[in-house]
Structures are given as structure tokens and as C-alpha cells.
Hints:
Elements: E1 2-4, E2 16-26, H1 28-46, E3 52-65, H2 70-83, E4 86-90, H3 97-107, E5 111-113, H4 118-130, H5 138-148, E6 152-154
Amino acid sequence: MSLDQLGHPTTSDGPVVATVSLAGELDDAAAARLLRWCEARLHLHDTGQVPIGHLLVDLGRVRHATPSAAAILDHARTEAERRRVGIHLVGGGSQNELLCQLTANRSGLVVLAGPVEATAIGNVLVQARAQDSVRGDLETLRALVAAAFRPVTYRPQTSPTR
């Protein structure tokens, strides 16, 4: 698996969303890289350099996730709960209801899934803003997306249903 398009938290007036795009198989080695990425972003949050509101994981190109990669979810749950940082899955993988529910179950956190075409939506909004068709800061643009594309909410359960 590759961790490409690593998103660096952007500065804003409030909490930011740190993003990462995953591709391939989520195996032990990939989970370790993802864990280091999460820890680095959470360190920025802890030291007050960047207030992280969510860790956004794009699963659009993940073909398979091994059960042993679940350790990353345990760590993410513990660390996210302590910091009150949420999990939001976007991209094609966010359509996988079982993966989303298992992520919620394993992490013990509420997981938001969607939109599926998050990258395309972001690109359109940036272009519209450049043409003055849409006005506002990053939070305003996020609010537009949130109003137009409601995420599916997965709550931790003991069974794999929503």
C-alpha cells in the first residue's frame, strides 16, 4: 500500500482536517506507516502547532485490508478519544459498509463515511472559488459540502450492522 497525497494540515481559525489517501493493500507494513502518520498529526495537535479536528482517511483505492491491520484502529481509537479527534472516511472505500462498520466497531468511535467523490468535489470548489463563483474561507466551503453531501454515520456495535 502506498500513502500518497499526504495532506498537511492547513491553517485556519478552527480545528483542521488532516488527510491521507491510501492505495493497495492495508497490511502490517502499511498499517505501521499509517500509524506513524496519525501519530505525527496528533503530535502537531498536542503541541498546539495545529488544532486537528479530524483525521480524514481516503480509502478510495484500498483493495484489501488484513485483520492484523486492526491494531492501527485500536491505537487511533485510544489517541483520538483522548484528544477528541474524529474519524472520517471518504472515497470509494467509504461505500464499503462492512469496512466502515468494522472501523467503528474496532475503534469504538463514531465513523463518518462519504462523500465518495471527495477529491473531485474539493477540486470543483477550489476552481469555483478562483472564478469568484463561490465565496468564503475553508470552513465555509466545508459547510457547503456538508450541506450537499450528508455523510453516513456508523456507530460502534457488537454486530456488523448500522
